[in-house]
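Hey L., structure's done. Input below.
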Amino acid sequence: MGGIGPADNADNADNADNADNADNADNAAAGGRGRASGGRPVGLSPALAFEANEDWFRANRWPPQDLAILATDLRSRTLANAPVAFRPEDWSFVHFAVVATTQFAQETMGGATPVWTSIAIPPPPAIVPVPPAPPAMTPIEQELAELQEIAEFRAGVLAEALEQRDNVLGYFRGVLTFRGQTHPWTTRLAHVAIRVGQFLAMHHKMQHARPRPSRLFPALMPPIDPPGHAAYPSGHATEAYLLALLLGQVMPGPAWGEGVGGARAPVSATEATDGAIAGDITDRVRDLPGVADRMKNTPLWRIAERIARNREVLGVHYPSDSEAGLRLAAQALPILLACPLVGAAGTGAIDRATAEWA
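Output:
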């Protein structure tokens, strides 16, 4: 991802938020060498030949003092041709995402207050100091037992899960191969999903302050150090599901299962807050009528599920953390679509990205 990384990637948090390097991240492959630029240093380069009656090379600076066109004609041409404003397409992917997040945070959708403040998830299962005698199990014990059972898959997913720590977007790009150079607006939209997902996840993590699974059950011993923030909701799940939902709005049918039972948005905001599940995070959205089939038949959604589940296999998230991220993403989508930078007809990222796939 370069200039921005998933919320759970604590190891690279400093680099992920380093906005000064975001332009380098966007242009990493522009020179064909697959690495970020270190800038554009300009020093004193030796001349190609001695000057008359001299036996040493003079130094050339930039711009050359003997090349007047750079200081006069080129300057006037540049000023005459410059755009009158900094256009949306001039923004780097990362910075565009930050600006879109500010719109998301302010969007009222015609109401009196920002809508995102009404996005809600139920609290995680309570920690019971004295568990009941077996075979009875509390909800959190059931989750820990599931994590212990799926830990046997670690060897099979470890390389994938480690790559997904800070490269969630790379797996979505593989569904119908695209990158920043080929689909710049699709890439901007993807960065928006990740940044907004971070914003929402961190807000709710601070509210719920849930310890990581290995704090309650050290025998899980994750193969990586748990990130330095609370578990609930999963940042990876929030970002991945929001990526699936936003990309589903713009990518062609094969990416979201057109004609085979898939959907651009397998879960709606209404379903994510349905009364049958709203009060208990251990009740799953997928158990609502028709939802599981839409999820199963939507390739983008299956990538998101895989990313979220791999975090559980590592032992750094409970299943309910992933469910909470799903619900946050579904509630965030309509707010994002109302933001001008994202949803404005003709000029928003949705319409511009859709045109890239035409």
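DSSP finds 17 helices and two strands in the chain. Residues 10-28+92-356 form a domain with the Vanadium-containing Chloroperoxidase; domain 1 fold (CATH 1.20.144.10).

-- N.
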